[in-house]
Amino acid sequence: MKNELTKVLVPIAFIVVALVFYFVLLGRVGIELVGTGGVAAVGLGIGVLLLPLIGAWILYATIRAGLQHQHLARRIHDEGLDLDVSDLPRMPSGRVDRAAADELFQQVKQEWEADPDNWRNSYRLARAYDHAGDRPRARETMRRAVALEKHERDGEPS
After folding, report:
1. How far is 66 from 39, CA to CA, in rounded Å?
2. DSSP 97
3. pLDDT tens digit sequence for 51-63
4. Cβ-proximal residues to 40 (8 Å cutoff; 6+ apart), any chain
């Protein structure tokens, strides 16, 4: 487990450090452009200064979402509710066969429809969407699972 964690954290840490370095360089360039005083340079400098801010926000949001999803994955695993796809047929790429993924999705969707306000069902549905290749719905459903789990953890009604 510790080795697996290191395999994930080291590349993430490297990317974060590289992005922070890049953001600092962009910030310096933006400040230099604003400092020239020319109208075009000031406008361009402001635009360049916005890039690190937007990038930092995207970086923060991505890491935060990843940590939230990992938290749910750990809870699901501890509760023994992981989707078992080990015996499903696979394509040469390693992804679950489309027909098998669609069948799994229909099964999990029925579980979700029976109790849509349970974060566990939303998490499992998000994973089923992912296996079926519907990434936008998987992300949307995973956000719902995160919110529902937070409400449960905080003792709030859903």
Report:
1. 41
2. P
3. 888 988 998 999 8
4. none
